[in-house]
Design brief:
Blueprint: E1 2-6, H1 9-22, E2 26-31, E3 34-40, H2 42-48, E4 54-63, E5 69-76, H3 84-108, E6 112-116
Antiparallel strand pairs: 1-5, 1-6, 2-3, 3-4, 4-5
Helix pairs in contact: 1-3
């Protein structure tokens, strides 16, 4: 998903980071503008399948094409198929909820320009 926002890029990164942390994700920065966020345990997901949720997403903030905009990219890294169809369904629902929460957060702050789900 690509969230085009206006305003300070550091504030956009902080908003995305704060929301992920509030949802229980562990953040591992890659550099100043990107990193990974994990929810649950990969090991438990492998052992318990659909009974244990594991989600991995990558995030990155880049300059937008329009002046004064930035793009917050959230890229799904795990599919949930280790837990079969039930695990994949739970992962998809969790990603959809994350999308809705991010859209709401940036809309509420008045910074949302456009939200693209790809």
């Amino acid at each position: 998903m690509h969230i085009v926002v206006s305003g300070d890029p550091q504030a956009a990164l902080r908003s995305a980071h704060d929301l992920l942390v509030a949802k229980g994700y562990r953040i591992t920065p890659t550099d100043t503008w990107s990193g990974t966020a994990e929810l649950g345990s990969k090991t438990k997901g492998a052992l318990l399948g659909a009974m244990s949720l594991y989600i991995n997403v990558r995030y990155q903030v880049t300059a937008g094409q329009e002046p004064g905009t930035h793009v917050v990219n959230i890229l799904q890294g795990s599919t949930g198929w280790m837990g079969g169809a039930v695990g994949a369904s739970r992962t998809n629902k969790a990603i959809e909820q994350l999308r809705a929460d991010l859209e709401q957060a940036f809309s509420t702050s008045g910074n949302l320009v456009r939200f693209d789900v790809t």
